[in-house]
Amino acid sequence: MLSDIEIAQQAKMLKIGEIAQKLGVTEDELEPYGHYKAKLSQKLFDRTANNADGKLILVTAINPTPAGEGKTTTSVGLCEGMNKIGKKACLALREPSLGPVFGVKGGAAGGGYSQVVPMEDINLHFTGDMHAITAANNLLAAMLDNHLQQGNELNISVKRILLKRCLDMNDRALRSCVIGLGGKPDGIPRGDGFQITVASEIMAILCLASDLEDLKRRLGNILVAFTNDNKPVFARDLKAVGAMTALLKDAINPNLVQTLENNPAIIHGGPFANIAHGCNSVRATKLAMKLSDYTITEAGFGSDLGAEKFFDIKCRFAGLNPDCVVLVATIRALKYNGGVPKPELTKENVEALKKGIVNLGVHIENMHKFGVPVVVAINHFGTDTDAEIAVVREYCEGKGVEVAFSDVFAKGGEGGVDLANAVVSTIDRCSGCQTDFKPLYDEKLTIKEKLEIIAKEIYRADGVVYTAKAEKAVKEIETLKLDRVPVCVAKTQYSLSDDPSKLGKPENFTITVSDVRASAGAGFVVAYTGDIMTMPGLPKVPAAENIDVDGSGVITGLF
Predict the structure, then answer these.
(1) Which of 23, 210, 405, 437 could be joined to 214 by an S-S link, Cβ 3.0–4.6 Å?
(2) Is 59 helix (H, G, I), strand (E, B) or coil?
């Protein structure tokens, strides 16, 4: 059996200009990065601004488990299946972060015969967007420390600096550090730390900005520190915004690549959903909708994180009205939620499936709360038995949703035809009208009121508990009048609760908020729960140990 990278390396890719032609993109609107990837220019946005929008499909999932769900694989396969049945469909996905690529998760370009290519490029440096974001963030940090060194005209308190440096790599040793050690020329000594690039506010800003001017405005609004008399200091006060924007002027444009079956894929931005808002860029999604009849996008991790933020943050800011949700699960993962250990998931266990399928049920119900129709996609494995399949079908029928069994990993687009037909038929049932989509809450509510709604309606918690630190932070954000915005919850992806060990449908629990911070440039506040770290660490055996490259430049071990 071929590995993902071996399948990708055997792909017969078309030159990127040919892929662009499928979307009606002209040569002048394309900025090639080699033969098989390109940036889509502002000229294209301007020309297509008045085009009608195609349908928007969100792919999300149950809470992830060690058994894997295959959300990106399903997204790619759905696009292939759509094109197989004669629909003009385009992907709008996130860019992978180098941290997970070399850590536990590996690459994020799909799997098997349902991938986007060139897989090695997409998973590694791609077109340099992550590096540009890292550079812009660290330029701001450098200018802040230089301001302190050069006399501190703004009277910034070294004990109240909010901005962290960033690095697109899992490196736990950099979570907390001391900088400025050495002699007088080496800077002002102070505590500092790093977060992973995809958790940075600049990543969130890039993904939510509508154009270069909006990007520049948002960068200026980044709250970086407080003065010694507790006045806020923004990035614009450090006169860093112009230079930061210059670093990001190319990164703001989406990237065009292709699937294994030569269908178009626009890949741009990559915030994590457990520590950020988990969606690709607004620009990429809206452009795909102008260029195709069906746009397939995804949100990170389970629907309690990625989809909630997609609806409450991204759709609210961008004015998007999604037409369908595809909710991905596997029978193996549902059995895991029912208490079956990973080594035994290939054995038939109907009772455990019935116990664990409640996790799927919560996610279905949650998506309906946003007024969007749902199709369940079961990522099919050969170990799924007829009895187990029957349980899933009956359960979904009882929830009033269609279910399709997807085999895109092994069969590519052909394995996604049933899912594609189910999605089209679900959308067509509302032909000529719009969904009843609406965000879960009014952003003008207080921070605590919004968190209470999310905790009770989405996580099914009894309520929210705040630490003293969080209480103080909420009051300060309210005083600054930065509170009447959406809330982005940083929470474990493994459970509906803030405890990763609580699987299925947890009951009788509260959510504990340990801190709240204003992301004024992004336009939301972040509430931290549990033990969420914004700089992940590497596992005992990192994926990096298995990655190699031969003398001809052929990479192996990347998955």
Answers:
(1) 210
(2) strand
Summarize pLDDT for 57-74 with one digit per residue, the tens. 999 999 988 877 899 999
Indicate the average pLDDT of the chain: 95
> Which tokens hold the place of 438?
């609406």
Angle between helical axes of 241-248 and 129-149 (0-180°, round to 10): 160
pTM here?
A: 0.95
Query: β-strand 38-40 against 255-259: which pairing, if any?
Result: antiparallel
Q: How far is the C-alpha of 200 from the C-alpha of 275, rounded, in Å?
A: 9
Q: CA-CA distance, 513 to 473, in Å (whole number)? A: 11
Selection from 505, 116, 166, 121 nearest residue 337 by Cα: 505
Tokens of 363: 């996610």
Give the pLDDT band of residue 1 (cuts 50, 70, 90).
Answer: confident
Q: Say whether pLDDT at 432 is over 60.
A: no
The answer to whether 22 and 288 have CB atoms below 8 angstroms apart is no
Query: What pLDDT does 105 receive?
Result: 75
**Which residues pair with residue 386 across a beta bridge?**
none
296: left (phi over 0), alpha (psi -120 to 50) or beta: beta
Token pair 């946005």: residue = 45
- 165 to 158, 179, 241: CA distances (angstroms): 15, 11, 16
Which amino acid would we find at residue 497? S
> 433 pLDDT exceeds 60?
no
Show the tokens assigned to 143: 């200018």
The pLDDT assigned to 3 comes to 87
Q: Which residue from 375, 534, 496, 488 is spatially nearest to 55, judged by alpha carbons?
A: 375
Q: Which residues, in sequence order, are bridge partners of residue 91?
A: 265, 296
| pLDDT above 90 coverage of the chain, percent | 91
Helix (H) or strand (E) holding 324: strand 324-329
As to burial, measured by CB atoms within 10 angstroms (0-12 exposed, 13-18 middle, 19+ buried), residue 95 is: buried
Q: Which of 137, 129, 189 is nearest to 163 (CA)?
A: 137
What is the CB neighbour count within 10 angstroms for residue 326?
26
- Compute the Cα dihedral for 360, 364, 370, 372 and give only its sign: positive
Q: Kindly report which listed range (44-53, 265-274, 429-438, 478-487) carries the lowest average pLDDT score.
A: 429-438
Alpha-carbon distance 176 to 158, whole Å?
15
Q: Which amino acid is at 127?
A: T
| Residues forming a β-bridge with 256 | 38, 266
CA-based diameter of the chain, in Å? 73
C-alpha distance from residue 320 to each of 51, 217, 283, 310 (Å): 15, 22, 12, 10
pLDDT band at 106 (very low <50, low <70, confident <90, very high): confident
